[in-house]
Amino acid sequence: MSLLNCNGVTKRFGGVVALDDVSFEVERGETVGLIGPNGAGKSTLFKVITGSHAPTEGSVHYDGTDITGWSPHDICHEGLVKTHQIVRPFENLSIHQNVEVGAEFGGRRPENVEERAYEALEFVGLDERAHETPTELSVGALKRLEIARVLATDPGILLFDEVAGGLDPEETEEIVSLIGDIKDRGKTVFLIDHVMRALMNVSERVFVLNNGEFIAKGTPAEIQNDEQVIEAYLGTSAERDEGPTRGEA
Amino acid sequence: MNTDRFMLGVPSSKRTVAASLVVLAAMLVVPFVTTSYYTGLAMTALVFLMLGVSWNLLAGYAGQISLGHAAFFGLGAYVAAWLTTPSAAGLPAIPFPLSHPVVALVLGGVGAALVALVTGPVMFRLRGHYFAIGTLALAAIIRLILTDQRSISGGSTGYYLNAGMGEIPTYLLTVVVAALATIGVYLVVNSRLGLGMRAIHDDETAASGLGVDPLRYKMYAFLISAFVAGLAGAAYALNSLYINPTSTLAVTWTVDTLVIVILGGMGTVAGPLFGTVIFMIIDNGLASVLGGLATTVEGIIIILVVIFLPNGIYGYLKSYVAQRREGDTATSS
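Predict the joint structure of the above. Result:
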């Protein structure tokens, strides 16, 4: 049985169809990338999965449990967490306390909260700055703090919404290697990113979303050679010859 | 790692504890070494301190701005009045333990908390400014109901209490209750509850995504806050021995509370303490020096603090001390 299962998910905002009958499965231990042009509905899909938005139609199952329409905190307790596209640290809490929120409230049984929070900080390399406030961190470090917070909830699946967005190549490299480490811990990862090379390297499968619909699913190699994807997302082949490996951000 | 799990923004040194004990001892001896006038001022300060501590928990820590605290204050006062002096409301005699002023005071807090328990889930469907307006409306409704129900509130004639504890015992009781309320809130903000509240204060969406149930932690803050405001109201009633719905539930109680917490520093345990002292000095000192102009000058001072010391007096002192310490370590190393 797959770990995450979306079935016929549709999300309408008034007359705008953000997601149109989206169905897919993510297997346990898998790393799946989600790409698509701006406005394709990627972030909306993540918000529907983690409960910030209720789907208009369709259902979301996690580990066999129907979590459609659940609140974000209940979904977090179930084992699904998401990092935010634009970082959202708790600015009046220390870095350590930021992670403690995840450790304390994210799981069903809050035990050894302090140690678990510290471990998560160590994992992302922020342990030495545990007692500073997030306002002193760079964007790259804030992204790592986002990762530490969700890791501290001891999740089953992590949804990363552009966790490498807006970072310089060095910081991106750090994040990519962190995602690799998270995979090695046996976690399931579902990620959106515009940094194509990074996403293609870590993902076993890639889904392509365009105008709220999946236009392709496959291995990174298959996706890179899919005509429809190339047209919708990477641009036509003429543009691509001059274009960078990054998608239009 | 174990030392400062929840320390940010919270005083914890031995020096702080010692200073608190000195203040507490000083408050306890006030009625024995000064005149009744100063005891009255100290009594008012304690009532405002409790209101400040109460409002600060809800607004400063949980981030929910209430403009309805006068209602909880007034309810606490009326519950204490009904229990100690039931005959004035035409109620049957209340049996001994419940009619004792100490019990009535605690139940004043409980009564206010019960109203918060019932109204909270509705109020928290509103967010931000809308929550503030909702609580303002809630307070107005409660005040109107009490004003209208003359038989239980005394209406505009008011309600005379026959509590019979005497000025000094009531004052000492209030010192103890205010100290316990302050310590209690201090413990709450440094606990798991406080962490949840502060996370919601900073970012409700992010907190919810990390497993914090926002309604639950807002409700905890609302209940504790209403309880302490109710204690303040009950202490006020037991001391003044006269209350009426128009003045005891007046919005000025809420406004003064806001001023105290904002002057002192929101979201800090010591903020309401500093704020109360400054407010009492401004409010009474200016009135005796400037007479009719006092309120105007008071308003100007508040505006200046909000503009130039947005974190309040205590917040400013804290960052000033922190900066100096940083400077010291920088020069010594």
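Residues 1-10 of chain B have pLDDT under 50 and may be disordered.
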